[in-house]
Amino acid sequence: MNGIIHTAPLQAETFAPFGDVLEADGVPTQIINRGMCGRYHDLANLDFAGDGARAGINLFKAEPRSLPYELDMMERHPEGSQAFLPMSADPFLVIVASNRDGRPHEPKAFLTCPGQGINYHRGTWHGVLTPLQAPGLFAVVDRIGQGDNLEEHWFEAPYTIKQT
Fold first, then answer.
1. First to last CA, the chain
2. Domains of the chain
3. Most buried residue, 31, 46, 133, 135, by most Cβ within 10 Å?
């Protein structure tokens, strides 16, 4: 066993080295639709490399997991950022790590609040999509283009993630 990682609430400040927290928090950037809608504008740094690469919207439906959770693998996408927007109000587990010598280093775990999504910066090590309740349905803004955009790292011994 590699060690225990305790979850923390997902907050923009602590998640900033890894990506962007996507939420309608604070005062809207603009009020639109005759005053009936607040717009929170340009919340994510979408970053896609490669000739002809573009943003695409996909739907992912993942099986729910539970805590404690065994983290045995992390992945990253060197050619593009990746945003996850839950299509239900259920919290999900977000696991990230810094990079050291091309491998994930010191994983961290966050629990989202209802209404939060995330955008991983290009090249950020992260765990797989980990909903904690069904339906586990997410809209995902991802890089569409040629080239290999997936690296995986399997740990020799898993980490255990527990809720704080």
1. 19
2. 3-162 (2.60.120.480)
3. 46
